[in-house]
Amino acid sequence: MLSLLARLNWPFLVLWAGVALFGVCVDRYRRSLKFGKLTGCQTSHKQALVKDPFIGLDFIHERVIRGLSGRRLLDCIEKFKQYGSTYSVDRLTYQVVQTCDPKNLKQVLATGFDDFQLPSSRVSVMGELLGSGIFTLDGDLWSHARSILRPSLMKHKMDGLPSIIEHHVQQFLTHLPRQGEDVDLQPLFFELTMDIATEFLMGYSSNMLDPSRKREKEQQFFDDYMLCSEEAIKKMSYGPLRFFRLNLAATKAKKRMIKYMDEYIEECFERQDGTFQRTDEQNAFQEIASAVTDRQSLRDQLLHFLLASRDTTASLLSNLFFVLAKNPETYARLRSEVLSKVAYENPTFSDLRDIEYLRWCVNESLRLHPVIPSNGREAIRDTTLPRGGGADGESPLFLRKGAVVLYNVFSMHRDPAIFGDRVQEFVPERWSGLRPGWGFLPFSGGPRVCVGQQFALVETYYVVARIVQTFERLESKDPREWMELPGLAMTCRNGNKVGLYEA
Ligand code: HEM
Predict the structure, then answer these.
(1) Which of 263, 276, 288, 306 is most buried, judged by most C-beta within 10 A?
(2) Burial of 461 (0-12, 13-18, 19+ CB in 10 A)
(3) Which has more pLDDT, 127 or 424?
(4) How far is residue 242's CA from residue 7's CA, in Å, rounded to a whole number?
(5) Is residue 205 in contact with ligand 1, taking CB distance under 6 Å?
(6) Is 54 helix (H, G, I), strand (E, B) or coil?
């Protein structure tokens, strides 16, 4: 090996590497010039400082260290203040554009949808964790996966949702102490949404909250899932170096998770007599089972669907109750508005839609702590963004094929130009008459908009209504501020410790 290295003509190799690099730069410049003439777009003058121009080790280091501090998203806001609402991070190996400009988000997610695909880092990391499903697919395979899931989430099916939820909410309430003793709501919300999601989507609930059940298996599944979810986010932040990251605990957790899912699927089949002929009234499990041919695809699709439906709604509930506990006046107003509409009765779907202040509180939580705070897409051809190019950043921006656009919903949701004053605070009243359009995207937008938005909202409204009916007062038992816990859905790092007082 050493003799081979010694025989290489190093000056010649370095010269050729230099020529190749020069060629790449000239080609990029020529392409951007040509494309600029055709479309009027420009390159970005807003460039973040890059210390390592090859693979970006400085950014990987920054993301990992900031991630540990629980302040990564707040730091992003500072970066946008420093460089503008769209800026580039250019390296020789790849181009990244960071944006929190609603016009650019609309372009990536809707108007220019066909020019983008999911970033390769997401496809490989999530694929490794959950297999192939709606969150890793593009093109025809994605359309097909989406068309399978949609029927079970049609709007008309939401009318029956409150009656499915009620039983699980009653079990959830039995776990809450009633005289102000400390309780962490976060893990309980995860169990509740797991029980509801499995019943609605698969026709058979995991019943994690049932006090008569031994829950070790479910608890293990839950812990494994959280571990894999955190690992996935960490891996993605390693960018091109993600392949070097090894986590044996996560590998073991994934194996157990798959085993749990396989057993669960077996039970679902047994309970439903293995009959999966198409009918008009199918749940998601039946829809998927009748559309795929093998067990592994069924498991993969279900894992994606569970991730989509369970973690997100649990995180929303947990984030919302975190801020409600810190804002007793808001809690009191919410309670009074719910009671004036439905008193202590079980609310129906239409009751829930009519409680305006409940809607405002949920919107405000999704604004302040969006459950999916940032996301990305990769350009599949040379294309443009409407803003970010030129010296003032107001011209269309050239994006070369392969560039990754990272769009930051968290920063956009704290833009005073869209949401007015006190953007760092929880102020549901701001939603009176507010129409932020593409400035508010908790459920994304365009063809890949969340298919479960109605389901998530009805579930959240119902759970909130039942809790405020039951408890007159809620107080925070944690003096700390909300801090991010990055995962595939974002929750509070310190959980949600509160005291509740029965009415
Ligand atoms: C508060 C709760 C929820 C939030 C904030 C939320 C948010 C989102 C967001 C932002 C996306 C886009 C992801 C992307 O483009 O990369 C998404 C996609 C998706 N959501 Fe939700 N979601 C929630 C609940 C649900 C529920 C309850 C379900 C199912 C019952 C669901 C099913 C899905 C599916 C299947 C997708 C993939 C859509 C596609 O790629 O075509 N979500 N969700």
Answers:
(1) 288
(2) buried
(3) 424
(4) 33
(5) no
(6) coil
Q: Whose CA is nearest to atom 23 of ligand 1?
A: 312
pLDDT value at residue 5 = 65
Asked whether the predicted pLDDT for residue 310 surpasses 80, the reply is: yes
pLDDT of residue 276: 43
Outline where DSSP puts E strands in 70-212. 86-90, 95-99, 116-117, 183-184
Separation of CA 460 and ligand 1 centre (Å): 14
> Could you give the CA distance from residue 98 to residue 105 in angstroms, rounded to a whole number?
11
Give residue 450 CA to ligand 1 midpoint distance, Å. 4
**To test ligand 1's pocket by mutation, which of 141, 198, 450, 461 has the most ligand atoms within 8 angstroms of CB?**
450
Distance CA 269, CA 288 (A): 12
Verify whether ligand 1 is closer than 6 Å to residue 157 (CB atom).
Answer: no
- Cβ pair 331, 473 in contact under 8 A: yes
- CB contact burial 389-405 (16+ within 10 A = b; e otherwise): bbeebebbbbbbeebbb
Whole-number pLDDT of residue 71: 78
Q: Which residues, at least 6 apart from 289, have a Cβ–Cβ distance to it below 8 Å?
A: 269, 276, 298
Is residue 279 pLDDT above 60, yes or no? no
Nearest to 409 by CA among 388, 382, 436: 436
What integer pLDDT is reported at residue 278 of this predicted model?
39
8 Å CB contact between 473 and 501: yes
Q: How many CB atoms lie within 10 A of CB 420?
A: 11
Cα 470 to averaged position of ligand 1 atoms, centre (Å): 30
Q: Is the CB of 125 under 6 A from ligand 1?
A: no
Burial of 452 (0-12, 13-18, 19+ CB in 10 A): buried
Q: pTM to 2 decimals?
A: 0.90
Give the E-state strand segments of 101-147 in sequence order: 116-117
Name the region of 488 (left: φ>0; alpha: ψ -120 to 50; beta: rest). alpha
> 453 CA distance to ligand 1 centroid (A)?
7
| ipTM computed for the complex | 0.99
